[in-house]
Input
Amino acid sequence: MSPIHRHLLPGFSASLGFALTYLTILVIIPLSACFLTAMSLTWSQFVAVVWTERARSAYALTFGASLIAAFCSVWIGLLIAWVLVRYEFPGKRAMDSLVDLPFALPTAVAGLVFSALYAPNGWLGQFLVPLGIEGAYSRLGIVIVLVFIGFPFVVRTVQPVLESFDSEVEEAAASLGANRWETFRRVLLPALYPALVTGFALSFARGLGEYGSVMLVSGNLRNYTEIAPVLIVESLEESQFKDTGYAEATAIAVVLLVASFVMLLVINWLERWSKRADG
Amino acid sequence: MAEPMAKTSVGPPPPRATSDPAWVRWGLTLLAMTILTVLVVIPVVSVFAQAFSKGIVVYFENLLGDPDTRHSIVLTLTVAPCAVVLNVIFGLAAAWAITRFRFSGRSLLITLIDLPFSVSPVIAGLVFVLLFGMQGFFGPWLRAQGIQILFSTPGLILATTFVTLPFVARELIPLMEALGPDEELAALSLGANGWQIFWRVTLPNIRWGLLYGVILCNARAMGEFGAVYVVSGKIAGQTCTMPLQVEQLFVGFNSPAAFAVASVLTLLAVATLLAKTRVEALARQSMKEATQARQESRGGTP
Output
């Protein structure tokens, strides 16, 4: 954009002023309040809150379940994106829209329905529980809902990249004697890495922050299926009986916030990296 | 774009270097369908099956007979539109400032708009408790003034607005960037004032993108759980939105009623998807037209 019409159009100060005020009231002040409140704790108090056995177990579960779920999402997402881009079959468009459903379905509904499905008397639980597969009120249940929430991110990041591929590259690989599997492994998959990694990071980040579905499906069993956001809510509810007030809940929130900001930076970096890889 | 060759070929395609053998194709397609069935179709079907398990009469009794559930529906229909309207005004202002002017700190502003997406919903609720709670920064002062924000509708609107803040702006910024300021500058040179430019030139050009953002924003606003869970205090009949009511009924061992409310939310999600698919095509088309028009007006110079 040339600097000539820089301030020709009206409304610069009004729109920017409004946007900045809005962001200050809704985002900057509230998030600063979070860090300010956490700073009312001394360092040793802070560590004592965020590094208890219970908190460690909650972080381990939050990160572990999100990591496993993101890993599963990558494979499921790649498979679905591949099928949607490469093959023609009846019901393809319906399948394409079904992928978006987890984006639109409220997380409370997801948690409710998954806990009912995998409960011992549920549609799927009645077959799975006798086999020892407990998908409700268990860590497995958390992974299942996080996959449900996470795989669409992978499909939607891989799909456009797969569509943009030139068939000449594959023909070249085939003419050089590669079979389909080799072409996929050596030619297509490396070109998909950036998109897969971005999809992985997006679904991992989403899993870290997820609350509604996980709390409904997990039953919040102490030291077993308790995720970090549950600890925040609980210590907030107990805060009126403590003289440290909201500070303890906020300390755990700060740990999660820092973790998700790091994730945001990584995602941004990955997106720039994959754009450069595209050329 | 997928190869047009593959789409038009009828019957078994000849073995080509870029197509997979039939058994691989059908195997993978079947596997993908099975996964989607278990992960998405069965859950959605079971929401309705559970909601109607005691018959249609009980379903409507569960939905409309309970005053708390009725209130939760009204509350969701109050909170979500407020959040959407606020974020539409913000999105338009932010997109106008960001795409029509160049100023320092512009990319920082874009990052700031995206920030709520990377904040866990529970923390989004927590920050408002820190501000407006009894022991929060403004809590005591607000109480002295007799203003209730937390555990009431304003708190729910604030938390929902925070969580859905990026949706509209994120749709509008790339679209308005692609459209460019040429048409608006032309209107300006013909003597149009700011509002006339906005209503007659900008808004008609961005309407599908705006609608797309509104649909996404509204779906999230109606379904938001974590953030409103923290600021609501879960007072049944007062501060429980529909997703919170689902949880309250489920925890209270009233599964059929929980599923009845959940079925309404699921219908909303399905309606959102249908509307989204339709509007997405239109939004993409206006984006494409914008890019093409820009390229043509530049006379083919790179």
About this structure: Confidence is low (pLDDT under 50) at residues 1-5 of chain A.
